[in-house]
Amino acid sequence: MKAILITGGGSGIGRAVAQLFVDRGWRVGLADRDSAGLKETAALLPAERTSCHVMDVRSPEDWEEVLAEFAQLSGGRLDVLFNNAGVAVGGPFGAAGLEDIDRAVDVNLKGVLYGARMAYPFLAATPGSCLLNTASAAGIYGTPGAAVYSATKFAVRGLTEALDGEWAADDIRVRSLMPGFIDTPLLQAGVGGSNRSVRETVVEAGLEFTPVEVVAQAAWEAVHGGRVHTLVGKTARRLSFASRWMPGSLRKRMRGGRAL
To answer: Structural domain of residue 68, as residue ranges?
Structure first.
């Protein structure tokens, strides 16, 4: 039985991906700091093929413990590590708190780096395995008002491309998801310098939300397909097109705070 370990499995994209993969016969490991969220997700899945692991992706010790636990349950298999946990940070960069910057870098980048590094032996021991990282449309072109978030997602994009080349000899495929805005608890984070949430800011900008079920299907296709990066949603596709074919126009829109 194939096995996937999902960080950020307590809600949102992680929950939707868990449901899709378990429906298709996989064993699923759910990892998250939110123990209540883990229980809610697990209640939607068959107990005999689901395990919950409370962990902080910023902790190498947690990674070591959870990977060992999951490997014991899966018979040593790790077909997919879904490096999905992340935090949103929004607002003017000049007003960003240093603690918020550190938290975003630690979770969105270092957590992904730790996961990739610690999972490498397990992925290498599973023929045809895949490391799937959640990047973002914000990793296609830098997003004003989300500079720190964009920086971390550009880094995840770069890591994905580097490891796709480096780990090919080990029969490990490395992929990323690059979704636009997804209406998940992540968007309830506050925007620095205001009393608005990230979600409210997205709505005011006139940008669309992509359903988590669409992202889950994209995750399945990314794991089984040949593309390094999978664009998800209209915003991501528009950004990709504009950054390649209309970079000047895109820059003007970003400088003017206009939606795509």
So the answer is: 3-255
Contacts of 18 (CB under 8 A, 6+ apart): 4, 6, 9, 28, 30, 41, 44, 45, 50
Separation CA 53–CA 57 (nearest Å): 11
Please name every residue paired with 99 in a beta bridge, in sequence order, or none if there are none: none
> Alpha-carbon distance 123 to 73, whole Å?
15
* Neighbour-count burial for 53-65, b at 16+ CB within 10 Å, e otherwise: bebbbbeeebbee
Note whether residue 260 is domain-resident: no
* CB half-sphere exposure, 164, CA atoms < 13 A: 17
Assigned domain for 82 exists: yes
Catalytic residue among 114, 120, 141, 149: 149
CA distances from 72 to 51, 66, 214 (A): 11, 10, 31
Residue 23 lies in a domain: yes
pLDDT, averaged in runs of 10, over the chain (260 residues): 97 96 98 97 98 98 98 97 93 92 97 98 98 94 90 97 98 96 57 45 54 95 97 87 81 69
**Any idea what the CATH number is for the domain that residue 30 is in?**
3.40.50.720
Q: Is 109 domain-assigned?
A: yes
The model's pTM? 0.88
Residue 102 and residue 225: Cα distance in Å, rounded? 34
**Total structural domains within the chain:** 1
Say whether 149 is catalytic: yes
Cα–chain center distance at 22: 19
H or E element: which one contains 135? none
Tokens for 252, please give them: 């003007």
Closest among 11, 13, 9 to 27, alpha carbons compared: 9
